[in-house]
Design brief:
The chain is mainly alpha-helical. Helix content is 77%, strand content 0%. The protein has nine helices and no strands. Helix 1 runs antiparallel to helix 2, helix 3 crosses helix 7 and helix 5 packs parallel to helix 9. The radius of gyration is 22 Å and the shape is globular. About 8% of the residues have low confidence.
């Protein structure tokens, strides 16, 4: 998958997600109003149940194609070994934010520590999408490979310092909840051993800045158009 297709894919999926979230409450309300439910309690229960499944379906419709696009793009450019797991775990960290019952207007007023942590995972996922959108196509010379490798190391560091976020997301998912709990304990042990458990927010900010700088380096590592000069034929 080339950069142009990848950009169109993830921006289109983001627009689809925003549209479905905005329209879901009205759709659920219309379905409940025409369902013939008896009593306010029964209608409220039906609306809550439909809203719950509507959000889950929306997440599946958007997240699965997005992860497939990330896999295709990272396979085409290199870095699949770290970029796809990074996208997967950051998506897991941001899932509770997207799955909660709130409309778009209320999502703008994030205030609790948990909500801010989930937003951090979403920002890291967005940075990854932007980085591979800027990744030079058909270019794997020394500078590009070096910046991509550096970006991978920064991503690993970001996974370590943001472990409480994505492990909580994994722990909320069926089938992988025990794995998320074990990883959370292992990460907490590592943070305590390094004495950084009280400054994870600051380290996450540093990782975010390093991620942005590495992504910018990847952008400017591509071949310059002005460096490609036409070959003039030799005269006899």
């Amino acid at each position: 998958m080339n950069a142009e297709t990848f950009i169109r894919r993830w921006i289109g999926l983001a627009a689809l997600f925003a549209g479905l979230i905005a329209l879901a409450p009205y759709f659920v309300h219309v379905v409940v109003a025409n369902s013939g439910c008896q009593g306010a309690t029964a209608c409220a229960g039906a609306e809550e149940l439909l809203g719950h499944y509507a959000r889950r379906i929306t997440l599946v419709v958007v997240i699965v194609p997005l992860l497939l696009a990330v896999a295709s793009r990272t396979l085409a450019t290199g870095g699949f070994g770290w970029a796809f797991p990074f996208a997967l775990l950051m998506t897991a960290g941001a899932l509770p934010l997207a799955a909660e019952t709130r409309d778009l207007a209320s999502m703008a007023g994030l205030g609790t520590a948990a909500e801010m942590a989930e937003m951090l995972a979403l920002v890291f996922l967005l940075l990854l999408l932007i980085a591979f959108s800027a990744h030079p196509d058909d270019s794997d010379h020394g500078a590009t490979a070096a910046w991509r490798t550096l970006l991978g190391f920064v991503a690993l560091a970001a996974l370590f310092v943001t472990a409480p976020v994505w492990t909580a997301g994994l722990a909320a998912l069926p089938y992988v909840a025990p794995l998320g709990e074990r990883l959370a304990v292992a990460a907490a042990t590592g943070h305590a051993a390094l004495g950084m458990q009280d400054a994870l927010g600051a380290y996450a900010t540093y990782c975010m800045l390093a991620f942005v700088l590495a992504a910018a380096g990847l952008l400017f590592s591509g071949p310059r158009a002005e460096a490609i000069r036409p070959i003039r034929p030799m005269r006899a």
